[in-house]
TrEMBL record:
InterPro entries: CRC, Lin-54_fam, Tesmin/TSO1-like_CXC. Pfam families: TCR. It is found in: Nucleus. The lineage of its organism: Eukaryota, Metazoa, Chordata, Craniata, Vertebrata. Its main location: nucleus. One of its GO terms (biological process) is regulation of DNA-templated transcription. Belongs to the lin-54 family. Residues 214-327 form the CRC domain. Residues 186-205 are annotated as: Disordered. GO terms for cellular component: nucleus. This is CRC domain-containing protein. Keywords: Nucleus. The keyword Nucleus applies. It comes from the Eukaryota. It comes from Zoarces viviparus.
Length: 404
DNA sequence: GAGTTTGAAACT
DNA sequence: CAGTTTCAAACTC
């Protein structure tokens, strides 16, 4: 989110160069090219080129404020200058610090929407009465930050797919306004899809973003693509151009698909939330939702979810023989981007270091036991050993210029 | 491309 | 919750 916000902020200050979000349709895999037009220092207007003007989304001031909510319900109509009387936007803290699973169906959105301030004439009671009320009244796009990394979801209820994940700045190449067709710069009139192709295709980068992963066709054969084994399903996407067999992860099997979603959510409410989302949304804390459990790969192969996501293992991991940490191995470690480096949870206090410290403490305790030391003295020996370990860790921190 | 390895998900 | 099985991706040859 912060990265996206930073980009918006930059765009506002430098109108000649803005990021161009791409909207990927989860069902059809079509790509729409949008355009961000900086209207002022703090307000941007989204042009969804394929859509009619009434779908314009406005990002007002609060979206650029770090302390504001990640989730917003944009109300309209929005066309026209960014006059404050022409749009109203309601901050919607649906799930604090949690991404919106892109597999969420409209019904799933009902509860969170009912908990937020809903613009007139819709009231909470109507929303709580059911999906029909929900769909019949909420006709504005729902905007949310997915993964905490600027991956924006646009949920529009009249579309076949409720969720439109956009790419983050990390997954797309910036395109300057000058590179766009002139009519795109001037208006937001509907355009043909061929006009929406980006100048340069986005490079695939490792990360938790489902829309990118979903581009890779799955090859499921037994799961009907309705279990989390299927990456498309796990990423909240329907299969499209996949090599799977007996696939039920499509619109034709919507009922069964929805049942599978509910089953997974019942088993694990966070099943469709990116495992690495926490690392992105809480990069300052360097945590993620769930760690890996690798045993044989050393967390240096793509078998490891952390390694695949281009992040280092953390205290959340239960891996054995982990080498996916700063200094764990020069071989096999990927070149880290600055962003990734910045989210390293703890540069020195790695799982291996913790393991080593525990080993030292156990050894010292055994030594005290063998020497038949009294309890107090044994405790003193262990604590002294712990102090030495901490000192070594601190030395390592300063030596490597790390922080924890 | 077939077979093997790996680890997450699902199951018991 | 731990152990086992299933599954599909990653990897090797």
């Amino acid at each position: 989110m912060y990265r996206f916000m930073a980009e918006l902020d930059t765009a506002a200050r430098s109108p000649s160069r803005v990021g161009v979000p791409e909207i990927l349709h989860p069902h059809h895999n079509t790509i729409q090219l949008g355009m961000v037009e900086p209207l002022s220092r703090s307000t941007l207007r989204f042009h969804c080129l394929r859509q009619s003007p009434q779908y314009l989304l406005t990002y007002p001031d609060y979206l650029l404020e770090p302390q504001s909510s990640q989730y917003h319900l944009i109300t309209g109509p929005v066309p026209g200058p960014p006059d404050s009387s022409q749009y109203s936007s309601v901050s919607a803290p649906w799930f604090t610090n949690e991404p919106i699973p892109s597999i969420m169906m409209l019904a799933d959105l009902r509860a969170p929407l009912a908990s937020i301030c809903v613009p007139q004439p819709v009231d909470h009671q109507q929303l709580q009465e059911g999906l029909i009320e929900f769909t019949s009244h909420i006709t504005q796009p729902v905007v949310g930050n997915v993964g905490g990394d600027g991956e924006v979801v646009l949920g529009y209820l009249c579309e076949q797919g409720p969720v439109f994940p956009t790419q983050t700045s990390a997954q797309r190449n910036d395109v300057t306004l000058s590179q766009l067709p002139q009519h795109h710069q001037a208006t937001c009139s509907p355009c043909e899809p061929r006009d929406m192709q980006p100048q340069a295709p986005p490079a695939r980068t490792a990360g938790p973003l489902c829309e990118l992963k979903s581009r890779k066709p799955c090859r499921c054969s037994r799961s009907q693509c309705l279990k989390l084994y299927c990456e498309c399903f796990a990423n909240g996407m329907m299969c499209s151009n996949c090599d799977c067999s007996n696939c039920h992860n499509n619109a034709e099997h919507e009922v069964k698909r929805h049942e599978a979603v509910q089953l997974c959510l019942g088993r694990n409410p966070a099943a469709f939330r990116s495992k690495m989302a926490g690392a992105m949304s809480q990069r300052s804390k360097g945590r993620r939702n769930k760690g890996c459990n690798c045993k044989r790969s050393g967390c240096l192969k793509n078998y490891c979810e952390c390694y695949e996501a281009n992040i280092m293992c953390s205290i959340s991991c239960k891996c054995v023989g982990c080498r996916n940490y700063d200094g764990g191995s020069d071989v096999g470690l990927r070149e880290k981007t600055n962003d990734v480096i910045s989210i390293r949870p703890v540069s020195v206090i790695t799982p291996a270091a913790v393991q080593a410290v525990c080993g030292c403490l156990l050894a010292k305790a055994e030594e005290a036991e063998l020497e038949l030391q009294c309890g107090a003295h044994a405790e003193h020996m262990v604590l002294e050993e712990f102090g030495q370990c901490v000192a070594r860790i601190v030395n390592a921190m300063f030596k490597h210029g790390s922080t924890c």
